[in-house]
C-alpha cells in the first residue's frame, strides 16, 4: 500500500526517467483512437476523458464526433468536451450544432461550450439560443451569455429557477453562482430545500454555498448537509454530482465527506469524481489519495487518484503508479490511464 511508501521505493521513483514525447504521443493516440471506437461506451468515455485533458490537440477528433456521431448523447458530450478545451477553431462547428442539430441536449451543450470558450465576438450567437423552443437550450444560452460578460440576464436566470425542465433549473443555479448573484439567494435556498429533482437540490445548495463563500458570508452548514445527504443515493449519477459539488465548495468538512465516498462507494465514476474533487483540497488530501492509488481494486480510479497526487506535488510518484495501466486489457482502463498521464506530463516542471 502506498500509504507506507519506503525511502527505497521513493528513491526508485525519483531516479525514474521522466517520460519523453513518445509517451505523450502514445497517450494522445490512445484517446484519439477511442473517439472512433466501434463500441459506443468506449467512444462516450473517450469523449469525456478527451475534454478532461484540456488538450487542444484532441479538439479535431471531438469536432468530428460532434458533427458525425449518430448517438445524440455522445454528440452532446462532445460539445461539452470542446467547451472544456476552449478551442476557438471549433466555434463554427458549435454554431452548426446549435442551429442545425435536432437534439435539444446537443444544442444546449453546444451553446454552453460557446460560452466557455469566452470569445465575446460570439455573444450574439449565444443569444440565438434564447430563441430556441427548448427550455434547456434557453437556460444554457443564458449561462453562456453570463460567461461572455453579459450580466443583464440575471432576471431571466431567476425565472429559469422555476422552469419545468430540471436541466434548465440546474443550469440556472450554476450561472447564478457564477454571477455571485446575492439577489437570487432566497430563490436558491428555497429550491435547495423543496425541489423534487435530486440533482437540482444538490446544485442549488452548491450555488448557495458558493455565493456565501464568494461574498465572505457565513457558509450555512445546513446546505452542505443537504448535499451530503445524497452521498448514498441509489443513482450513481447523483452521487457523482455530490462529489463534484464538494470539490467546488472545498472546505475542510468536504474533505472528510469525500474521503468517506472514496472508501465506501463501489461505482467507478463516483470514485473518479471523488478523487478529482479531493485533489482540489490541498496537501491534506495526499494520504487518502496515496492509499486509494495503491490499494483500490479499480484501476481507472487508481489512475485518477494518481493524477491528483501529481497535482498536489508528487508527479514522479504518480507517473510510477499510472504507467502500468497503459497496457491494460480493458480499453477503458487504458483511456483513463492515458488521460492521467497527459495531465501529469502537462504539469509545470519544477
Quick synopsis:
With 350 residues, the protein is an all-alpha fold. It is 70% helix and 0% strand. It has a domain at 35-149: Leucine-rich Repeat Variant, CATH 1.25.10.10.
Give the CA-CA distance, first to last residue: 27 Å
Cα gyration radius (Å): 20 Å
Helix-strand sequence: HHHHHHHHHHHHHHHHHHHHH
The major sheet is characterized as:
none
Number of strands: 0
Q: Determine the fraction of residues in helical runs and give it as a percent range.
A: over 70%
CATH fold type of the domain at 35-149:
Leucine-rich Repeat Variant
Strand content: under 5%
What is the highest CATH level, the class of the domain at 35-149? Mainly Alpha
The CATH fourth-level homologous superfamily of the domain at 35-149: Leucine-rich Repeat Variant
Overall SS class: mainly alpha
Average pLDDT works out at: 87
Low-confidence stretches: 1-20
Identify the overall geometry.
globular
Number of helix segments?
21
CATH architecture of the domain at 35-149: Alpha Horseshoe
Can you put this structure into words, describing what you see?
The protein has 350 residues and is mostly helical. It has a domain at 35-149: Leucine-rich Repeat Variant (Alpha Horseshoe), CATH 1.25.10. Helices cover 70% and strands 0% of the residues. It is globular and about 50 Å long.
List strands and helices in order, with pairings.
Layout (H helix, E strand, L loop, with lengths): L6 H9 L5 H14 L5 H14 L5 H10 L3 H14 L5 H10 L3 H14 L5 H6 L6 H13 L6 H7 L5 H14 L5 H10 L3 H18 L5 H8 L7 H14 L2 H13 L3 H11 L7 H10 L3 H13 L3 H8 L8 H15 L5
Helix pairs in contact: 2-3, 2-21, 3-5, 3-21, 4-5, 5-7, 6-7, 7-9, 9-10, 9-11, 10-11, 11-13, 12-13, 13-14, 13-15, 15-16, 15-17, 16-17, 17-19, 18-19, 19-20, 19-21, 20-21
Amino acid at each position: 500500500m502506498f500509504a507506507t511508501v519506503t525511502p527505497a521505493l521513493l528513491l526508485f521513483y525519483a531516479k525514474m526517467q521522466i517520460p519523453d514525447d513518445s509517451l505523450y504521443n502514445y497517450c494522445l493516440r490512445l484517446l484519439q483512437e477511442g473517439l472512433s471506437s466501434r463500441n459506443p461506451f468506449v467512444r462516450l468515455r473517450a469523449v469525456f476523458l478527451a475534454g478532461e485533458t484540456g488538450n487542444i490537440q484532441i479538439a479535431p477528433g471531438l469536432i468530428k464526433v460532434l458533427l458525425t456521431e449518430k448517438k445524440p448523447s455522445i454528440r452532446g458530450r462532445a460539445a461539452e468536451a470542446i467547451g472544456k478545451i476552449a478551442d476557438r477553431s471549433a466555434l463554427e462547428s458549435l454554431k452548426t450544432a446549435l442551429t442545425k442539430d435536432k437534439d435539444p441536449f446537443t444544442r444546449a451543450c453546444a451553446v454552453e461550450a460557446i460560452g466557455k470558450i469566452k470569445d465575446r465576438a460570439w455573444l450574439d450567437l449565444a443569444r440565438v439560443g434564447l430563441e430556441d423552443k427548448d427550455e434547456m437550450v434557453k437556460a444554457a444560452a443564458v449561462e453562456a451569455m453570463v460567461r461572455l460578460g453579459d450580466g443583464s440576464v440575471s432576471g431571466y436566470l431567476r425565472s429559469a429557477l422555476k422552469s419545468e425542465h430540471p436541466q434548465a433549473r440546474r443550469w440556472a443555479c450554476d450561472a447564478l453562482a457564477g454571477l455571485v448573484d446575492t439577489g437570487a439567494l432566497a430563490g436558491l435556498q428555497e429550491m435547495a430545500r423543496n425541489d423534487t429533482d435530486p440533482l437540482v437540490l444538490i446544485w442549488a445548495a452548491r450555488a448557495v454555498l458558493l455565493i456565501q463563500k464568494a461574498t465572505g458570508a457565513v457558509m450555512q452548514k445546513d446546505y452542505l448537509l443537504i448535499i451530503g445527504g445524497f452521498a448514498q443515493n441509489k443513482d450513481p449519477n447523483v452521487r457523482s454530482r455530490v462529489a463534484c459539488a464538494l470539490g467546488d465548495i472545498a472546505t475542510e468538512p468536504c474533505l472528510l465527506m469525500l474521503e468517506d465516498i472514496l472508501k465506501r462507494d463501489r461505482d467507478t465514476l463516483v470514485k473518479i469524481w471523488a478523487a478529482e474533487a479531493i485533489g482540489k483540497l490541498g496537501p491534506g488530501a495526499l494520504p487518502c489519495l496515496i492509499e486509494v492509488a495503491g490499494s483500490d481494486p479499480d484501476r481507472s480510479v487508481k489512475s485518477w487518484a494518481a493524477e491528483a497526487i501529481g497535482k498536489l506535488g508528487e508527479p514522479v510518484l504518480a507517473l510510477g503508479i499510472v504507467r502500468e495501466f497503459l497496457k491494460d486489457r480493458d480499453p477503458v482502463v487504458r483511456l483513463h490511464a492515458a488521460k492521467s498521464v497527459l495531465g501529469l506530463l502537462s504539469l509545470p516542471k519544477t
